[in-house]
Write a structure and sequence with these properties.
The complex is a heterodimer of chains A (about 400) and B (about 180). By secondary structure, chain A is an alpha/beta fold. Chain A contains 11 helices and 14 strands. Chain A is elongated. The chains are: A alpha/beta (about 400), B mainly alpha (about 180). The site of iron/sulfur cluster has 13 residues of chain A, from helix 2 and helix 6.
Chain lengths: ~400, ~180
């Protein structure tokens, strides 16, 4: 009955079965994982537990305060630091996404050396130091330190201090270049507010904001801080709802949110600001504060400025009236207005308009209830109001 | 007549027998794999003996796995912890595995231990509440202090599954011990 052939068939069937069973057992195993021990653990290393580090977001120059959740030495999540004065616990989408910048596979992890054919090859820090240090030394011993230039986009706090020391030691110069180098804004603040540094615009306490190109809800200076302030500015609860006018050729996010959008021709913002200032001076009488401001040199009339900027003249007149009537008006300048070839003059004129509006204040004046919505950091001279205007606009 | 029917069915019956044999064989193969080819006792990069450390020398578990009462994971000791003791133990300094340890130390590397016990990613087991609740390490890990090479016992492997957790949670009347979200979140 059971032939030789049959026996072989049965054996083969059983054999295939056993083999399949073994194979299934093998593939069904959970793969083994390794548990890498640390060599010398960092002080606050605690596996399976979160450690939070407070630091600053560096995705834009605002430098919001953030707390980073770290697990076993790896950054895992970013949250706003509620104790930080600028962001007060907020972050923007960029700040949230900065973990992706940290772990981006294309991020440079080592110094890159030019290969002479337009490409770059990775090198080590030792190599980099060996290549650079002797040349810097040679420049210095030849007394040519001042011909050394350090090119940077700007650093923050301790980094800036280190850069300063390095520059001093070399006797070198620093050239700041970057998409967001606020050289024009710095120059305007120096000329009109008399301090070196960027002014802080206290939008929250203003009842009228006229922004010349400053897209503060999008990507200007400190989006998180200004967004918070904007919320207060628009607060309707106490019957105070600020009015926002955006003057810019392209409608930005801020322009889209504004009550009025004035598409002035690019480069004419300064002329507009100065014309408005002159108009206000003409009708506002002369207060003690504004002695010496009467003859704003180079100011156009509102109609001339409207023609220049390609705007209906009646809108400018209406704006001037609104400014005269406002209690705590504030003017911002930056963004598109701070980017043309006449940007420094433009922003200086915008700042002059703030002076005429009496919007330039100091630390004390920025306290609640005060009338001065601009807070200047590190004011150099006590005399905030030089008697003669230096505003001159070119368009 | 019947004979010819039987004759006709013969290949079918044979096929069935082969299929049954194959299935039985698969069971045997799977069992044999679990019994003999399993990885419940993985070879570690250093042949570290818990029998010597935890058994003979009675070093408490949490001297090395020091996060067990504070964290989700018990953690493995840093190389520094190992070397901290072994620097003073010259009598075993030349045994092959201690030499390996000092090689890791000098290279500045961690030791890539192979995990013996592991829960799937959808289970959030936390050591802290268990240790603080007074559960002995051995309840889940077996008599580690008797093991030269740590093993996941076959029966424990069968048991370290959800019904086993639930049984204990029920017996001990753990608060929210039967709630899905206690472990699966
Ligand atoms: S505004 Fe956004 S990107 Fe800029 S510092 Fe703050 S969180 Fe970072």
């Amino acid at each position: 009955m059971l032939s030789r052939r049959d026996i072989f068939k049965y054996l083969a069937g059983g054999g295939v079965g056993v083999g399949t069973g073994l194979l299934l057992g093998e593939v069904n195993q959970r793969p083994l994982e390794t548990l890498l021990s640390t060599h010398i653990p960092p002080e606050d290393f605690s596996p399976g537990m979160d450690t939070w580090y407070n630091t600053l977001c560096r995705m834009c120059p605002a430098g919001c305060g953030i707390s980073v959740k770290v697990r076993e030495g790896r950054a895992k999540k970013i949250e706003g630091n509620p104790n930080h004065p600028v962001s007060q616990g907020g972050t923007c989408a960029l700040g949230q996404a900065s973990l992706n910048a940290l772990y981006n596979p294309d991020r440079l992890r080592a110094p890159m050396r030019s290969d002479g054919e337009g490409g770059f090859v990775e090198s080590s820090w030792e190599e980099a130091f060996a290549a650079i240090a002797p040349r810097l030394g040679a420049m210095q011993s030849a007394g040519m330190g001042s011909r050394t230039w350090i090119l940077t986009a700007g650093l923050l706090s301790s980094g800036e201090e280190a850069l300063d020391k390095f520059r001093e030691a070399l006797g070198a110069n620093v050239l700041r270049l970057g998409l967001d180098t606020p050289a024009t804004e710095l120059a305007a603040a120096q000329a009109m507010y008399g301090f070196s540094g960027l002014p802080y615009y206290d939008i929250a306490k203003a009842d009228l904001v006229i922004s010349f190109g400053a897209d503060f809800l999008g990507a200007w200076r400190s989006p998180v801080g200004y967004s918070k302030a904007y919320g207060e500015f628009r607060e309707v609860g106490d019957g105070h709802r600020g009015h926002l006018v955006q003057v810019e050729p392209r409608m930005s996010l801020t322009g889209a949110n504004a009550d009025e959008w004035l598409p002035a021709r690019p480069g004419t913002e300064g002329a507009l600001a100065l014309a408005l200032a002159a108009e206000l001076l003409r009708h506002g009488g002369s207060s003690e504060e504004l002695n010496g401001w009467e003859g704003l040199s180079g100011a156009l009339s509102l109609d001339e400025a409207a023609a220049l900027a390609d705007l209906p003249a009646e809108r400018l007149h209406a704006l001037a009236e609104r400014m005269a009537a406002a209690e705590t008006p504030l003017v911002l300048g930056g963004g598109a207005a701070g980017a043309g070839s006449n940007a420094t003059e433009t922003l200086t004129c915008v700042a002059a308009l703030n002076r005429v509006l009496g919007a330039a204040g100091d630390y004390r004046a920025a306290q609640p209830g005060a009338r001065a919505p601009i807070l200047g950091a590190e004011r150099q001279s006590r005399d905030l109001y030089p008697r003669r205007t230096t505003a001159r606009c070119r368009w | 007549m019947s004979i010819s029917v039987f004759e006709a069915a013969r290949p079918v019956i044979k096929g069935l027998i082969i299929a049954v044999l194959a299935i039985v064989g698969a069971y045997i193969g799977h069992w044999a794999h679990g019994a003999m080819l399993n990885d419940y006792t993985p070879v570690q990069p250093i042949e570290f003996s818990h029998e010597i450390h935890a058994g003979e020398n009675e070093i408490p578990c949490q001297y090395c796995h020091s996060w067990a009462d504070r964290s989700a994971t018990a953690g493995v000791p840093s190389v520094e912890t190992c070397v901290g003791c072994h620097k003073g133990l010259s009598e075993v300094r030349d045994t092959p595995d201690v030499v390996k340890l000092f090689d890791y130390w000098e290279r500045g590397e961690g030791i890539p231990w192979v995990k013996v016990h592991d829960t799937p990613d959808f289970v959030h087991f936390r050591h802290k509440p268990h240790i603080r609740g007074g559960v002995e390490c051995q309840t889940c890990h077996g008599p580690v202090e008797e093991m030269v090479r740590v093993t996941r016992r076959v029966d424990l492997n069968e048991n370290l599954r959800m019904p086993w957790c639930i049984d204990c949670h029920t017996e001990e009347d753990v608060a929210n011990g039967r709630d899905c979200l206690t472990c699966h979140y």
